[in-house]
Amino acid sequence: MSTTYTAFLDALAEAGVSYIFANFGSDHPGLIEAIAEARAKGRAIPAVVTSPSEFVAMTAADGYARVTGRAQAVVVHVECGTQSLAGAVHNAAKGRVPVLVFAGASPFTQEGERAGTRNEFIQWIQDVHDQRGLVRGYMKYDAELKTGANVKQMVHRALQFAHSAPMGPVYLMGAREVMEEEAPPVTLDLAQWQPVAPAGLSPAAVRAVAADLAAAERPLIVTSYLGRNPAAVGALSKLAVSCGIGVLESVPSAMNFPPDNPLHQGIQWNQKQQNPGLAEADVVLVLDSDIPWIPLHNRPAANARVHHIDLDVLKEQMPLFYIPALTRSKADCATALAQLHATLAGACGETLVASRTAHWGKRHAAYREGVRAREAKPAAGITVEYLMAALRAHVDRDTIVVNEGVTNYQPVFDHLAMIWPGSIFTSGAGSLGWYCGAALGMKLAAPEKTVIAGDGSYMFSQPAAVHWMSRHAAAPFLTVVLNNRGWRAPRFSALSLYPDGYASKANSIDTAFDPPPDYAGIAAAAGGAFGCTVKDADDVEEALALAMRAVKEEKRSAVVDVWLAG
After folding, report:
1. 218 to each of 207, 245, 300, 301, 416, how far by Cα in Å?
2. 10 Å Cβ neighbour count for 313?
3. Is pTM beyond 0.90 here?
4. How do residues 98-134 score in pLDDT, each as one tens digit?
5. Residue 223: helix, strand or coil by DSSP?
């Protein structure tokens, strides 16, 4: 018998979903049966990756989608599993990542009225008033499946939302009676279920932005996540080079612009200082950025002409956001940059372009000189800068870096200096522990790549579950733990607001993990991973070489726990 679950699986396969990251429960017997039936009959369905943790299931789907741009499915049980997704849902929403989440729901009958009726005590306890409401604030679309007759249409509609810019997660749920019912096969025209086509700039916006860029003496582009679309990186480089426009990355979550290009003006995170390039820019073009600057410490000049182009230019999920922009355009940046490049062809003049390029080039050279100086081998202890320089020797165009260094985000970007589109990612959000499951998902998405995770949040990531999954799914990756034996982020925040307060003088402010757990041992016990702990700079290069051999040749994950100085 073809059931709603049969149709659900078929819809996922039709949509090109490769994986179901699953944490099954008592609401999924029909799904388990439908999967077994499909396998027995040789019908194509997504591969199932068993996840002992809903959080990790979501982050793995998140990581896969960041590499491919295609949503994968996450299956959890009722409201308990939905709540266990927790911060991973925040990361997918704020990172604008397409993921399809399906949760079962407690049966709504109890005396055998329908197939799938309640037969276990837990089904009364797990019945809640508004299961979808648990995640509605983070989803682009949420719906309840109420019949098997249109489940395919509902799945494709959900994915249409997920893949339409700005992309994001979607949520479906269905009670056991609905999912167990007979559902005659339905054939759909998939051409009708494509995402909304990306939009460009209006003619008026093209004229306004191009005119200011052409007339500027010191034009500057600020971006954070333009590189989530690898095609946009080339478009940005083309415009910047042809017009001599500097490019500053503010809180980057992707490789947006090659850091070896003389127009690259470095990276700005939480530094309490004015960025000199931003201060002197007379025209600022903000492209795909949630936080182009932190105005308490850093902002454009008062007379700078600012334009904003973004997939989410209003920041619809942020109660407070504004920048002094003269034009605001909701547009795909790859498309918008191509429009601007065509309009500005030859408009800036060779002399002006040369002058701009020389100016930004001097600033770039000074920035890179400072980066290189910080890479020196320390006399005692291990610095992040030295560690990343050593790791850089193992990085090439077939490497993906997953950066969740938290207070070390910037040195990871600066010193690895990834130059290939799609080669480095952060969550772009705030729920820690993302890196580990994301690295697993990225390895599944690109098995030919070497995945390296720079980590400052190991215990948040549920490493036992991830490393079991890594071995089970044959998806090895390297984690380099940036171990400072505690939470530096809350410590820095406290000292920032109370530099002379009691916390600044206290022996402990309850943010230390010292002595820390055996991080390498956790991975080894859970997933047979290679592991080692490094406390001396003299041992860094050998440890990284052994770890890379474990990942590349032995096909198992590796954890290098590096104790940082200070």
Report:
1. 19, 7, 12, 12, 28
2. 18
3. yes
4. 999 999 999 999 999 999 999 999 999 999 999 999 9
5. strand
Question: Does residue 319 have a cis peptide bond before it, meaning omega lies within 30 degrees of 0?
Answer: no
Beta strands in 132-263 (DSSP E): 141-145, 170-175, 219-223, 246-250
Task: Place domain 4-187 in its CATH homologous superfamily.
Answer: Thiamin diphosphate (ThDP)-binding fold, Pyr/PP domains (3.40.50.970)
Distance CA 200, CA 232 (A): 13
- Whether 384-563 and 203-363 are alike in CATH topology: the answer is yes
For domain 203-363, the CATH class is alpha beta
The span from the CA of 223 to the CA of 510, in Å, is 36
Three-state helix/strand/coil letters over 153-185 = HHHHHHHHHHHCCCCCCEEEEEEHHHHHCECCC
CB of 103 closer than 8 Å to CB of 132? no
**310 in helix, strand or coil?**
strand
Domain ranges of the chain: 4-187, 203-363, 384-563
CA distance 479 to 560: 6
Asked if omega into 166 is within 30° of 0 (cis), the reply is yes
Selection from 510, 260, 481 nearest residue 382 by Cα: 481
Q: Are the CB atoms for 380 and 566 separated by under 8 Å?
A: no
Contacts 24+ apart (CB under 8 A), 296-302: 297/271, 297/272, 297/273, 298/268, 298/271, 298/273, 298/274, 299/274, 300/324
Q: Give the pLDDT score at 495.
A: 63
Which of residues 329 and 565 earns the better pLDDT score? 329
pLDDT tens, 283-314? 999 999 999 999 999 999 999 999 999 999 99
Q: The domain 384-563 belongs to what CATH superfamily?
A: Thiamin diphosphate (ThDP)-binding fold, Pyr/PP domains (3.40.50.970)
